[in-house]
From TrEMBL, chain A:
Keyword Oxidoreductase: yes
Top-level EC class as recorded in UniProt: oxidoreductase
GO MF term (any one): oxidoreductase activity
UniProt feature coiled coil, ranges: none
Protein name, entry field: Quinohemoprotein amine dehydrogenase beta subunit
Swiss-Prot/TrEMBL keywords: Oxidoreductase, Signal
Signal peptide interval: 1-27
EC number: 1.4.99.-
Automatic annotation (TrEMBL), chain B:
Domain Quinohemoprotein amine dehydrogenase gamma subunit structural: 31-104
EC number: 1.4.99.-
Top-level division of the source organism's lineage: Bacteria
EC class: oxidoreductase
GO molecular function: oxidoreductase activity, acting on the CH-NH2 group of donors
Protein name from the UniProt record: Quinohemoprotein amine dehydrogenase gamma subunit
Keywords assigned by UniProt, alphabetized: Oxidoreductase
Pfam family, any one: QH-AmDH_gamma
Native organism: Marinobacterium lacunae
Record has Oxidoreductase as a keyword: yes
Length: 368, 107
């Protein structure tokens, strides 16, 4: 990124001195990305917590799912009821990629599932196709769809491979395996279609005293740790009678290290209140923050909740700055709430032009 | 059905479908999201049988339930059936009065 663009995007040219200009020229730039209704991608400068630019997304809103290119300069979003994919250069809002997944005879929905290959050359979605016949709809086999990003504004599917039903959030490892978040966590090789089990959930084998896990794979904001987290809830009963009143209830997480593709799964906290999403502190992977009606801080090495901060309304998701000091809590309404990660006290707010609904809250770090 | 005679192709398909050996396997929902997740906050009761863990206020949760077809019985499904329901309302907490109910007879 050129210095001129850095300064323009930060919007602080008149407010900083020459010394800080020099340091900004070499500093990484962190941008917070989210999508609001009616359908706009916001690029927020995290150094000033102001909106650097707003990109209009063609078509109606599409749940706000965002995937980043490996260099973080481009964001790919689902639009038009999650049927279409658009790619943006977040430095100037140029639209660089478009793929219409549906046709007149086949409706294709991608529920949150969008990711970019490790080399930045391919884009992946999980397509849920329905054949539209003259007298009925027929549900088809879901598939991983592969697009070449260089195909630009008229991209077509170049490969497909069958995958399980019920896949939502996906991510790509450094080995370019696509992690598929569904009833179980699986990984697929997007060259061959070979699928492996990454972490069992619905088919886990923990014995008759454990409730099958109830997982939530709507968001995953592990950019700072380069990881994928899927939270789940389970219960351990004291007998096979399954008395829900006396059961131990637990939050668990399936956690994939996207650097290695290795996964862990563990019950990490007593289930005391609803949390929609977790994000880890980049300074300590045992420290997790969670959001919903509360913003909370947890030490999973001790299975403890450290702080609970009541929020004025529900927030579905959250993310964190690269230095781990600042939390951004968003989703649902039109404000991103900013908090000190040490105390969870609110330190700021970013007002947006519309509701975020189920949109992602992604951090794009552009390295100079 | 044995006293009814199918006259067109669609009716013949219905006849075939009621034959047990012709019934196709029921397939699972396309996605994890939906009304089936037991710990998701709902619109009537939360997982603890109370109200404190429901989304609050409900205006914050309207589009989250509509856009992803999350609670299609409680909130219009903007993904498929009512794509224009929130068309002119960018902020539900400010303009919730414009988000009208859905009436099948158009009234």
């Amino acid at each position: 990124m050129k210095l001129k663009n850095v300064l323009k995007s930060a919007g602080v040219l008149g407010a900083v001195g020459l010394g800080s200009l020099a340091s900004q020229a070499v500093a990484d730039q962190e941008f917070l990305l989210t999508i609001t209704r009616p359908n706009q991608l916001h690029v927020i400068d995290m150094s000033s917590n102001t909106i650097a630019r707003t990109c209009d997304i063609p078509g109606p809103f599409g749940t706000g799912s965002i995937a980043l290119s490996p260099d973080n300069t481009h964001a790919y979003v689902l639009s038009n009821g999650t049927k279409d994919v658009y790619g943006f250069d977040i430095r100037n809002c140029d639209i660089t990629f478009k793929a219409e997944q549906s046709s007149p005879t086949e409706q294709v929905i991608s529920m949150q599932s969008i990711a970019v290959s490790a080399d930045g050359k391919e884009l992946y979605t999980v397509q849920n196709p329905i054949k539209k016949l003259s007298d009925r709809f027929e549900v088809e086999q879901p598939r991983l769809a592969v697009f070449n990003i260089k195909d630009g504004m008229d991209a077509k599917v170049v490969r497909t491979f069958p995958v399980d039903r019920r896949i939502t959030k996906i991510a790509v490892t450094d080995q370019n395996e696509v992690i598929l978040g569904g009833a179980d966590l699986k990984g697929i090789n997007p060259k061959t279609g070979e699928v492996r089990m990454v972490s069992k959930l619905a088919s886990w084998e923990k014995g008759p005293l454990w409730l099958p896990p109830d997982a939530f794979a709507m968001h995953s904001q592990g950019e700072q740790m380069h990881e994928y987290i899927m939270p789940y809830v389970t219960a351990k009963f004291d007998s096979e009678e399954w008395n829900f009143e006396t059961a131990e209830w637990w939050w668990g997480i399936s956690r994939v290290d996207l650097k290695t593709g290795k996964a862990t799964r563990d019950e990490v906290l007593p289930f005391q209140f609803i949390i929609f999403n977790f994000v880890a502190d980049p300074r300590n992977p045992d420290i997790l923050y969670g959001s919903f009606n509360t913003l909370s801080k947890h030490d999973i090495s001790k299975k403890e909740t450290l702080i609970v901060h009541e929020m004025p309304h529900t927030y579905y998701d959250l993310n964190i700055s690269g230095d781990g000091k600042t939390l951004y809590v968003g989703g649902t309404s039109s404000d991103i709430s900013i908090h000190d990660s040490d105390t969870l006290e609110k330190i700021g707010s970013i007002q947006l032009t519309g509701d975020m609904s189920t949109s992602d809250l992604r951090v794009a770090t552009i390295r100079n | 059905m044995k006293h009814l005679k199918s006259l067109n192709k669609k009716a013949q398909l219905i006849n075939q479908a009621v034959s047990p050996e012709e019934v196709e396997d029921v397939v699972a929902m396309q996605t994890v999201v939906g009304c089936t997740a037991t710990t998701d906050p709902g619109w009537e009761l939360d997982p603890f049988g109370g109200l404190g863990s429901l989304c609050q206020p409900m205006e914050s949760d309207l589009y989250g339930c509509a856009d992803a077809c999350w609670w299609p019985a409680q909130v219009p499904d903007t993904m498929h059936t009512y794509p224009d329901w929130g068309k002119d309302v960018a902020k539900a907490n400010e303009d919730w009065r414009k988000l009208d109910g859905i009436f099948e007879d158009g009234e």
